[in-house]
Every structure is written in C-alpha cells, then in structure tokens.
Amino acid sequence: MADNIKSPELLPLNSKKNLQGKSFKQYERYLNNVIENPDIQNIAITGKYGSGKSSIVDSYFENRKKADFLKVSFASFKDNNKSQQNKNSDNNLDNKNKSKTNRTFIIKNRNNSDYNSSRKIEQSIINQILYQIDPSKIPLTNFKVKQPLSKTKKVLYSLEIIFFIIIFFPSNPNILTSFLQGFLRFAELFLSSESYMYWSINMLITFLVQYKVAILLPFISWNIWSFLSHFQIKQFKISFKSVGAEIDLPNDDLFEKYIDEIVYIFKQSEKRILILEDIDRFDELDIFEKLRELNVKLNSSSNMPTKWQFIYLVKDDIFNNAESRVKFFDIIIPVIPFITTNNSYSKLNELFSSEGIKPRLIDIFSNYIDDYRLLVNIRNEYQVFKAHLDSSDLNQLLALIGYKNKYPKKFDDLQNGKGSINELINKFSAINYQKKNNLQNEVQNLIKKNKENITESEDEILVLDFMRTNQRSAINNLNEYKLGTNYYYKEFNLPYELGKSKKQTYEEYSKTEYFTDRVRLATSPEYFDKRLNDLQSQITNIDEKKLKDIERSDLKESSIKIDDLMFALIVNGFVDEHYLDVINKYYGDVNNHQFKKSLISQQENFDFQLKLTDMPHLVKDLNYSDHHKKQILNFTLFNFYIKSDNEEKASLMIDTAQKYPKFFLEEYLTYYPKDIHNIISLNNKLHFDISKITQENVFREIIFGNFYDCNDTNLEYIVLYLQRNNIFEKYYQQIINGDVYIALKEIIIQNLPKKYNVEEIVDKVDKDLINVYFDNNKIYPTIDAILEYVKQQEHDGEYFVFDETINNFCKKNIDELTQSDEIIPEKLFDSVLCSNTMDNNIKEKLFSKYGSANYQHYTSAWLDKIEPKDFFMLLNFKLVILDEKIFLFLLQNNKDVLEYFETQIVIEALISHDFESSVISTDTFLSLIQEKTADTFLILAKNLSLFNGSTDKIKQLLLSFPGNQFNKDNYKFVNILKKDKRSLTSKFTNNEANEHILNYLKENNFIQNFALANNKYYIE
Q1: How many other C-beta atoms are found inside a 10 Å radius of the C-beta of residue 532?
Q2: Cα(290)–Cα(296) distance, rounded to whole angstroms?
Q3: Residue scoring higher pLDDT (878 or 436)
Q4: Strands 243-248 and 235-240, how do they pair?
Q5: Where does the pLDDT of residue 268 fall: very low under 50, low under 70, confident under 90, or very high at 90 and above?
Q6: Bridge partner list, 504
Q7: pLDDT number for residue 416
Q8: How far is CA 366 from CA 255, 372, 678, 801, 920, in A?
C-alpha cells in the first residue's frame, strides 16, 4: 500500500446534536408544546434502538440554549442467557424460602438479582445527578462527592493526634510540659520576648498545658458525631421460643429511604427536567414505577419552586400491554425510525457508493441489519481494514466486516481459522469426497454390468440369469415365465441389485433398475458410453466445486450450525475458502505470502495448486530444512525444480511427498504427465496412489515398475481403470505372468471374465497362484480339480490336507460336486473325515455319496482319529461297524445305540461279545428285552448289574420271561433272590444265561459259590 494514499474519514457513532430539516422541526414543535405544559410531567420518546431518539432530544436541548435539565444515560451489555439463568436461580431461592414451614416471620427486602439490579439503577441515577450539580449548592446532603481534605481539616486532624498523644502519657505529664517549654525556648531564638507573637505562643502553650483535657473534649465529640453519621444498624433480630422476627434495614429502596435527600438535591439543582435515556435496556419495570412515584413526590413538595418533568427515551415494547403504556406516561411521542429493513439497502448503498460493492451483497446485509449505528460502524471498520490489508477482494472484505459487526463473538474464531466456518469447509470437502466415491462406485458397477452383458436382447439376458442361478429348467419355459400363466414357472430367484437376488415374477423383475439397465446396455452400446461419460462428467464437476456450491441439505446430516447470514454470504460467493487471506494482513504477492506463511507455521490445510510467482526470488527465501516439511509441496515449485534440473531439491520434495499421504505426486502427474520419467529417475523407490492416475502411459509405468503401495485402494483402481478403458484383455495376461505384485495378480484373477478347467492353468501359472483361482471360483468345480489342488500342496502324510481355500471352493460348489457322476476316491473321503477345516455341511453332502461307492464301513478305530461330531455323522449315515468301543462311545455321550443301529444288529453285538462292563443304558436295555426271545433273555442275564440295588426289579424281569419257553430255572433264581434257603439245594440247567445269572448272584453275595457237575449247576 502506498503511504500517501488518503483513506476516507471515519464517521462518529454517537448521537447527532445538529439535526435540521423538516422532520426534526416537527419534533421540535412537539417538544416545545409538551415542555411548556406544566401538567405534563412524564414524557415518553419511543422508538426502537437506533431510531434517532437521542439525536432528536440532544439536538432539541442544544438549540433550546437552556441548561435547565439533568440527563441520566444507561447502557446494559449483559448476556440475556446469563440474566435468565440468574433469574431462574433467584426463583429457586425464593421457592426454597417459601418452603420453610416453621413459625418464624421474616420481614426483609427482596434479595434477588432483579431487585439488586433495580437498586443499582437507583444508585446510578443518584450518582449521575450528583456529578451534574455543583457540590457547593448541596452542602447539607449526606450524598457526598469525594473531594480532597481542606487545609482546615488537616490542621484539626493534626491537633487531634497531638492531644491523643497527651492522653497516652498521663503518668508523666512533664513530658508534654518539657516539650512545649523547649518549643518556647526555640521560638525565643527567632522572636523577641516582648513581641506580640512570642506572647501569643506563650499564652497558647500555657493554656494547652493547663486545660489539655478540656480542649480534647470537642475533638472527641466531633469524632463520635462523624462515626455515628456513618454508622448503620444492619439487622435487628428478636426471637421468643418459636416465634421470631427479622428486620433488614439497609436494603430499603433508595428513593424511599432517602426521599428527603433526593428532594433536597433536586430543589437545589435549579433544574426542572430530568432526561432518562435507555433505562429500558435493563428490562426492569419496577424502576419506572419508582421514578413515577419520585416525580409525584417532587411535584407535591411544598418547597419545590417549579414543576419537574421526566423525559424517558425508551423502546416501544417496554410495557407488555397498551393500557399500562398509556396509563404510565402523560404523553408519548413516537420516533419514526431513521432506518429499517425497507430502506437499509439505500443507506448501505449510500455508504458504499464509491467502493464498487456488488448490489447483491448490499441486498443481503439490508435484510439482516437495520441499525444505522451498526451500518456506520461497518463502513468505518471496512475503511480501516481496507487501508491496512490492501485486499483486492473488496466484496469479501465487506462481507466479513459486516458479519463481524453482526456476530462479534463468532468473528474471533473466524479470523483465527476456527469455528463453524472452518468445520463447514472441512465438511464440504468430506461431502464432495463421499459423492465422488459414490460416483466412482457407480462407474465400477456400470462396468461390471456391461462386462456381464454378453447378450443382444432381453431374452438372452433372462437365459443368462437362469443359467447363472442354476435354474436351467426355466430356459425351456421362458415364454411361460414372461406371461406368468404357469404356476410352476411364475417366480424364479433372480438378481435385483448387483450381488443380491430374490424370487420375482417377470413383471417384477422387468421393472427393476438392475434389469432395465442391463437391457439398455445390451441393446444400445451407445447407452454405456453415454452413461459412463455422464458419471465421469459428474466426477469432474465435483472436483471443480467451490464452497459456494454447498447446499443446505448437506448440513442437515452434520452437527455444524451456520447462521442464515453466513450461509447467505457463502452460497452467494461472498465468503469462500480463502477468507483468511482477506481479513489478515499480508505483504507482496498474496499466493507467495500464503505459501510461506503455511510453511513457517506448518499449517495443516494448504493447497498444492497454489500458483506461485517470481520463483528465483522465492527459492532464495527457502531454507534447506523447509524441504522436509509437507507444506513445501507445491506444483509450481516442484515443476520449477524439475525444469531447472535442480535434482537435489526435487529429490527432497519427492521424499517429503512420500512421507505424507496427500497424493502430491499423483495429482502433479495429472497436470504434468510427461514428468513421470524424470520423477522415476530421481527416485526408484516411489509409491504412488494409483487411484489418482489418469494417463495410460503413466499408469503402465507405475504398475509394471511396482511404484505404488500395494493396498486395496490402489489394486481396486487398477482393475477399474483397465475395465473402464477397455484394456483389461490387453493387460491381464501380462500382469499374471509379469514381475508385479502378487496381490495385483490375485485381484486380476479375481476379475477374470470366465472359469477355467484346472488342466489349463496348472502348467501355465505359478503354483502360488493356483489357490487364487480356487479362492475366486475361477475353476470349474470337479472332483479332479479338488484332487489336483491337494496334490499341488505337496503335504506329506496319509491323508490329504484341506485348507481354507479348498474348503470355501467346495462350499460354493458343493451341489455341482455331488450331482456329478464322478467317483470320489476312498482316500478323499478319509481325508475329508480327518479334516478339521472342512465345513460340516460339505462333509455331510460328500458322505451322502459314500454308500454308492461300496467302500468298507468305518470301525471304532476312527474314534481316535476324528472329532466326535464327525463320527456321529458316520453313525447317521450307517457307515460304522458296531463294537464295544462304539457302545461305550454312545453311552458316554448319552446316546441310544438303537438310534444309529438296527435292533437285531445291537442284539447280535451284545450276544457275540463278553463285555467287561455294561455298554448300554437301562432305557436301551429295557427296549431291547421287550421282545421275549432266547437272545434277549441272554442279554438280560449278561446285564443284571444294571439293576444293582433293585432286587425287586431283577425278579420282575426274570419272571417276565416264561420259564417253560426260555428258561425253566427262572423261579429258582427268584427264590434265591428272596433268600429262600430251600432254593440253595436246587440244580440248574447248564447254559450260558444261567451261568451269567449265577455269577451275578455270587458277586452280590446271594450264594457262596456254584459248580458244574453232571452237566448241571449246583450251589456249594
């Protein structure tokens, strides 16, 4: 800024005292008539703040040339919210006081914020009046204005101190006498003993010595009187048992308590008019009542030489209802506002007529600001900021200054780059990022749909969907499905979104956006190009969006609160992302200054694309260490280093760019794609974000040189880029066979457009990639494919090992695997059984084919090889040979053996084996012996131990088998159980069942022993 430029003068904000014109003359005539009428004592000048009330009154009394008025002015800057909180707090206190129910009566003044505020107003009125009256006119008042001590008082206080010293030495009065006599001898040195002065001093000293106490008494009386005049009794408290009274004196209303003083002051002032300005700002209606009472008392006083008139400058809505308003005042003179929202535009336009401000900005402010003083102050601050900032964007400067005056508290955060505007800028960036991401996903989905559409008609699309969903039966009945006439072909499971499907009729399916899009893609190749270009155009538009493009709906989803004025300024382009540059001081080129400022202060938000100028001079100002800061990253600077072959500084910037995930190099290559070779030659360990690359030659150099971070974002974009540019077929085989990241090969395989026979890939791709084909279901599902996969894993051991890859492959294709006619090798069955990773559902479906293979059943030896759940699967398929370990396994797991084996098989197993302990449960046992046969009786004989402790049950079971049919000795055994001694001489048939029963009796001490003789058992 040139120092010799003269800025306009600033306009004062106070009220004017030199109003002229027709409008003021009319108000002057009104006031003359009112003031000349002694019956009018309470006059209201009403109007909203800034309407010109003060200017009218000040100009009137300035022209009147009479100093017969006192003026009291108020200003309240309290926070309304805090005031309301205080009132609520006081109300709560009053409620607590009211809640006391004892018999103590309290007589005291209110002690809340409203009352204290009213009391302060009264004090302020009295104080302001006192300072407008010459103290000499009111010598008798107790309301004293602080003044320095007079010489007389200083002498009196000094003498008083001397006499107090006299009192403090009553035991040795000669001290004072000696002191005074010494003073007298000192006086003789300068005065003749015959002079009048010497005689006077001698007489005074003699008088002081002889009458010191008498002289001290007036001083003591004067001090006591002064003390009592300043002493107040604050509280009397009288209490008798439970009845009490409490009286506060000092909190009485000041106008009431000191009415005599106030009348005296008003009388002695020699005035007759009291002007009360802005007293309504406190919202205390009580003070108006007290002032009216004061006016009545003043005018009723017999000592008052003239009638007093009170003039109130207040707003229109000070009273809640019209009756109170007109009843309080004797006359009301309304002031027509000097400025309103209707004429605010013209006043603003007048104030800024020479500034080249856009009418739209003036129109916005005119709808929010109708206070003339505020408008004038906006103009003043605008001129100051303009003079010191040299801003070229005057519209934004005025917008921010206007906002500062309307919302001063918010402006402080705004000027420091904080607050809701900064949040809004960040939110706007996030919104655009999300919109761009959604559009990019739409592009990807569109490409996938187009890739899937290898058809030319609607019918071909339907046939393709039926084949992909394994509903081939519908293909031959396509017309019936479309017509919906056949119940069996009315609904099929078809996609409605990418990757999602449900049962739909043709009418429902044909109306889905998924299907209609695919039809358009299939029947109109131009549709794909048009749709793709439209989406890419929307992405480009998002990149070009500015803050003014934000919509109110974008803010509803966030917690950011932007007031209407700021939102209007933003969407109309008067406040943008660079607002800080407008209201903060800078020198020289603004962009260079902003760049250096962000570099020095290491700001988080900086712009790569900031256009810099005078590069040689700027580079000289940069330190070596600056190139390690992320704020150094700038396209203009980096390009300057490359073009000037400053490899050292360019390499430093590349290193810095790699440390911070801000995509500097990626975005730079969008504007300078030819520099890719220069950049790679400077650093062969670069890592780009491939999603920011748009040029095919740059793209190719990066992916085949592995110059990028191998992360999901980059990999997904590589595939999207290849598909979007129709070069997937061109590059996918090179990528799979090339020296690139394995992860890239994997994602390329994942997006292959078809499946392969396992034989096609085994000898052509790296062994490590075979599982990728299986993971992504790019292999036709066959038993041979599974066998080939497990062979490639080269695991040593008796069985194949199934990892997660083959497990997932089988899960996806289990129906096709089990529906084929391929023979599953026995080793594959055994390996599946031993696998801890194979899904249970897959195992069950595979073993459903085991029976048709005629392989041997599994023995109990497999209990130690597989998990119990897998063994139960074998049991469910009836693929297990029953033996003792199987009995015990089922018994331990509380399972009924009859659930898994036929009854006859269980009986045969129990008969053919002598188990050391019972291998079946009581319930299973009872179920087996319900059918009375020789075999079941033998089972009973072998398992009597199941009923130890229940002799009656054993007798019952033995008797349940007819003795003449199975065993004639049952009754004899029953008698032994009954401990009938005669039965001990009985002989028993030699058979296996009797032997087991006798062993049971012996083990349970029913008999001592038994032996076999002559083919009969007898008891010893």
Answers
A1: 16
A2: 10
A3: 878
A4: antiparallel
A5: confident
A6: 492
A7: 66
A8: 44, 11, 57, 81, 98
Q: Cβ–Cβ contacts within 10 Å for residue 410, how many?
A: 16
Helix axes 212-230, 151-167, angle to 10 degrees: 120
Check if the beta carbon of residue 701 is closer than 8 Å to that of residue 679.
no
Beta bridge partners of 756: 779
Burial zone of 375 (CB within 10 Å; 0-12 exposed, 13-18 middle, 19+ buried) = buried
Check residue 225 and give its pLDDT. Answer: 59
Within 10 A of 47 (CB to CB), how many other CB atoms are there? 21
Q: How far is CA 183 from CA 188, 195, 200, 576, 931, in A?
A: 9, 16, 13, 87, 150
End-to-end CA gap in the chain: 135
Identity at 371, one-letter amino acid code: D
Question: For the CA atoms of the chain, what is the radius of gyration?
Answer: 55
Residue from 582, 183, 666 nearest 402 by CA? 582
- Note the pLDDT of residue 224: 64
In the sheet that 1016-1019 helps form, which strands lie side by side, from edge to edge? Answer: 987-989, 1016-1019, 1010-1013
CA angle 652, 656, 658 (to 5 degrees): 120
Write out pLDDT tens, residues 499-517. Answer: 576 777 766 766 787 767 7
Q: Are strands 42-46 and 331-334 parallel, antiparallel or unpaired?
A: parallel
* pLDDT tens, position by position, 957-1015: 888 887 656 667 888 888 888 888 888 888 888 888 888 889 888 888 888 899 988 88
The b/e string for 311-341 (b: 16+ C-beta within 10 A; e otherwise) is bbbbeeebbeeeeebeebbbbbbebebbbee
Q: Which tokens is 295 given?
A: 């006016």
Question: How large a percentage of the chain has pLDDT more than 70?
Answer: 71
Name the β-bridge partners of 331. 43
User: Is residue 247 within 8 Å of 107, Cβ to Cβ?
Assistant: yes
Instruction: Outline where DSSP puts E strands in 193-340.
Output: 235-240, 243-248, 273-277, 309-314, 331-334
pLDDT per residue as tens digits for the range 93-141: 344 333 333 333 333 344 455 556 677 787 788 888 888 888 778 877 7
Strand-pair partners of 70: 274
1012 vs 328, residue with greater confidence = 1012
What count of residues does the chain have? 1020
pLDDT tens figures, 826-856: 888 888 888 888 888 888 888 888 877 788 8
Pairing of strands 69-73, 273-277: parallel
Q: Which amino acid is at 733?
A: Q
d(CA 304, CA 295) in angstroms, rounded, equals: 12
For 959, the token pair is 């008797």
| Packing angle of the helix pair 767-775, 804-819 (nearest 10 deg) | 60
Q: HEC profile for 703-720?
A: HHCCCECCCHHHHHHHHH
Q: Collapsing DSSP states into helix, strand and coil, what is residue 646? A: coil
Residue (of 56, 391, 117) closest to 281 by Cα position? 117
Tell me how far apart the alpha carbons of residues 417 and 957 are, in angstroms, rounded to a whole number.
96
Q: 638 pLDDT exceeds 90?
A: yes
Q: Is the pTM of this model over 0.70?
A: no
Q: Dihedral through CA 377, CA 381, CA 387, CA 390, nearest 10? A: -130
